[in-house]
Amino acid sequence: MNIQRKYSLPNCTLLLEGLSDVTRAAQFQEMRPELSILVNAECYLSGYNQPLTGGREFFESLVRAVSGYAQEFLSSVSNPQAHNQESELVEFQKIDGNLHRLIIHSESASEGFDRSNNSKRPPIEIDLNTVQLFDLVEAVDQFFADTQTLPELSLELQPVTRRYGGANQAVIRQAVPAAVGVSSLAVAAIAFNLIPPPQIRVPQPKPNEQTSSTTKSLNPPASAAATPATPIAASTPIPSTANEKPAVKDLEALLNTVPEITDPSQLRALNRQVYNQIHPAWTKRSGLQQDLIYRLGVAADGAIVGYKAVNKEANQGVGQTPLPNLLYNPAKRAPISNEPIAQFRIVFTTNGVLQVSPWRGYAKTPEVIGAKITDSNITKDLNQKLYNTVRQTWNGTPTFTRDLKYRVAVNKDGVIADYEPLNQVAFDYFQETPLPKMFNAIYGSNVAPPNDKEPLAHFQVIFKPNGKLEVTPWQGYQ
Question: What is the DSSP letter of 370?
Answer without folding.
Answer: S
